Amino acid sequence: MFSALRERIRQGKRTIRDPLHAPPALPDRFAGLPVLDDSLCDSACNICMSVCPTDAIARDQSTLALDLGRCLFCNECALGCPEGAIRFTTEHRLAATSRDGLIVKSGSPAPSVQVLETGMRRLFGRSLRLRQVSAGGDGSAEADLNVLGTVVFDMGRFGIQFVASPRHADGIVVTGPVSRNMRYALLETYHAIPEPRLVIAVGTSAISGGIFRGLPEVLSGVDTLLPVDLYIPG
User: Fold this and answer.
1) What distance in Å separates the CA atoms of residue 53 and residue 73, rounded to the nearest whole number?
2) By the 8 A CB rule, do 192 and 167 touch?
3) How do residues 71-91 score in pLDDT, each as one tens digit?
């Protein structure tokens, strides 16, 4: 017991600072917001598009566009581009309130999250209870959500908690591409949440289907079934 107490004292405070007041310490290899530069792009070169496993990159004449809702952040496009027209930064703020807000083009600003309208902010601004549903996910986005409740991130200090019952929730957090076997369970969970309710899509699979997009076993994203209020790519 005493050895455990000594170790806890040695470690000191482990909770990270409020990200609104201090930027989080991220490793250099962290792949965040991509930056596209059309002036470096060879219009005859299609390497970036050919190596992308989810068709997240498109070109309209000489203008490159990257869809964060499809991007796996695998960095293959940046590594494959001989001109360096695509690079990933460590900017972690990627969420958007609309699907179009996830399209990054040359010179375009980072996705912006609109503040909830006054009534919704009054309801949820200091207390938000969320029901999480893994709709056919592979466990990666689910693992990231799980660590938010640990002492390091401690999302409870912001008034955000995951709850067991949708009847006690203010909104739903969906991960996974929404398999057809999970369609009914997801709809039932959504309708069990009292109105007004929020829908948050977390991860590339939940937003667009990811690598499973287009397969007959999945619906290729939450917004094919439910209205989404917030998209969090990754």
Assistant:
1) 11
2) yes
3) 999 999 888 888 888 999 998
